């Protein structure tokens, strides 16, 4: 039960952490210093964590990675858009 | 067993994904477009995942998050250094 709380906190923190980056790119329309490889690889990595979470039936891993995947994809799309 | 392989792949991919960002900052000495809040929050989030992994005794979670924590901290240090 305690591990569930720690897992949920970890998931919420990691997921929420992507928000300021997404907002910063959206506001400044700049993303030149961000590594595209990093965020594309992160998307695939997060997708694998999501699959892993489904396999071991751990809800915090499933929910956190589903939300993180959406935000990471958004950052990738904005990075490509504003790096043109 | 299959979940262990998926977990290890996810961990390796997410961990390795931080490398190009760290190398990019190191080479360009630029990190202005990166969100400091994002990477500081990620450090705390990854630390909590590490604790969670230890609690549920899942080796892929422990190893991946230990390595990611080192790289995320490195990015935070460089971000602070090169944003001055």
Brief rundown of the structure:
The structure is a homodimer of 84-residue chains. Chain A contains three helices and no strands.
Structure commentary:
Two copies of one chain form a homodimer. By secondary structure, the first copy, chain A, is mainly α. Chain A has a single domain (2-82), classed as Monooxygenase (Up-down Bundle), CATH 1.20.1280.290. Helix content of chain A is 85%, strand content 0%. The first copy, chain A, is built from three helices and no strands. Chain A has helices at 2-28, 36-55, 59-82. The longest helix of chain A is centred in the N-terminal third of the chain and has 27 residues, at 2-28. Chain A is elongated and about 45 Å long. The N and C termini of chain A lie far apart (48 Å). The model of chain A has no long low-confidence stretch (mean pLDDT 92). Chain A binds chain B through residues 2-3, 6-7, 9-11, 13-21, 23-25, 28, 30-35, 37-39, 41-42, 44-46, 48-49, 51-52, 55-56, 58, 60, and chain B through 2-3, 6-7, 9-11, 13-14, 16-21, 23-25, 28, 30-35, 37-39, 41-42, 44-46, 48-49, 51-52, 55-56, 58, 60.
Shape annotation of chain A: elongated
Number of strands of chain A: 0
- Stretches of chain A where pLDDT is under 50 for at least 5 consecutive residues are none
User: How many helices of chain A in DSSP terms?
Assistant: 3
Secondary structure elements and pairings:
2 copies of one chain form a homodimer.
Chain A: H1 2-28, H2 36-55, H3 59-82
Helix pairs in contact in A: 1-3, 2-3
């Amino acid at each position: 039960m305690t591990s569930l709380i720690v897992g949920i906190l970890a998931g919420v923190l990691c997921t929420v952490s992507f928000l300021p980056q997404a907002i910063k790119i959206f506001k400044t329309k700049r993303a030149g210093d961000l590594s595209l490889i990093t965020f594309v690889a992160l998307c695939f990595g997060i997708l694998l964590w999501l699959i892993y979470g489904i396999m071991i039936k751990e809800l915090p891993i499933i929910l956190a990675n589903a939300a993180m995947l959406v935000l990471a994809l958004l950052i990738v799309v904005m990075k490509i858009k504003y790096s043109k």
